[in-house]
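Q: Could you fold this chain for me?
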Amino acid sequence: MDASDARHRAVIDAAWADFGDDRSIVSMDELSAMVSTNRVYRLSLDDDTSLIAKSSNYGSFFLFAEDHDRLHRTNELLRGGPFGGFMANALVVDGRPFLYYDGEMWVVFYEEVEMRDRLPKILSAGQVSRLGSEIGRFHRACSGVARMIPPPSKTAKSDAVNLFEMLGSRNARDHFGLDRSRLDLVRRHTHRFLLAIHESGYDYWPKMPVLVDWNLGNFSVQTAPDDPDSFELYSRWDYDWFRIESRLLDFYFLSRVSSRTGDRSVFTYGSHTLLEPRFRWFLRAYHEVFPLTEDEVWFLAEAYRFFLLNYVVREGRHFFRYEFWQHLLHDAVDVQLPALESLDLTPLVRELF
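A: Sure. Below is the predicted structure, expressed as structure tokens.
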């Protein structure tokens, strides 16, 4: 057990004691993907039940708490509908998610959701279309409750404004580990994203709960016994990138799940999955359930740009372990952002409109 692991386990023990449950922790088994800086553990309790604990010390506890308040509110509002049991619930005290904070680290406990079937690494054509329909249904349900969820403290615009200012600061080179030419390139792309936000009227577009990071390791489905292409979304866990934003932020990861190479663990975030015929199948099925506008489809390029700028460049050092972040950072800056100049989403627009 390294010092970091010991620190996370200690804060989880303290959090459980503060929660005040009569049950004792019998064992604590790590489930962390070993990519993120978070630590995730399964807690086996003395009554033969189990819970999931997540501990963290990056970013802001207060934004973490806000996200879990919004997640809890979303779950409460979805209750009774087709997705009432889809997302894992945090343990609550007095109707609010229980969060432990020692001034340096924080912990949340989740009920352990039942996992059913996992989709294969490479989906069939029928599974791609079915996934599009199911995500359309889920987005439609989230959109239906969005007006009853308080607005967030941070937005895609505020994150981009913050990044733009950081890139122009005196210590930008040391903070990002990029030379001046690369900093200038990232700043140009950040400026372009902010212009797109302004020119599109994005502030007035509908916002709703989005989970952003969709991969085959964080959701399960219920498959029909006689048809592997027919399934329903069954359970979802892992909310590191939850936010209240446009539904478009979900689509890049969904294009990766739909792609001909499948949901791989190779860490590169190229745009090619947005242009594959398979993603057009996904979008067509989604559009039939919860129609997109033409402006939204064109804006998918900007949603992808925001993903690279925010989750790789701005926050990557916190979301990913250092070696993964360095690889992703230089891939994003040297390859993926420059390639955006030639990204043409005309085939997607023609597919739907």
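A (continued): The chain is about 45% helix and 15% strand.
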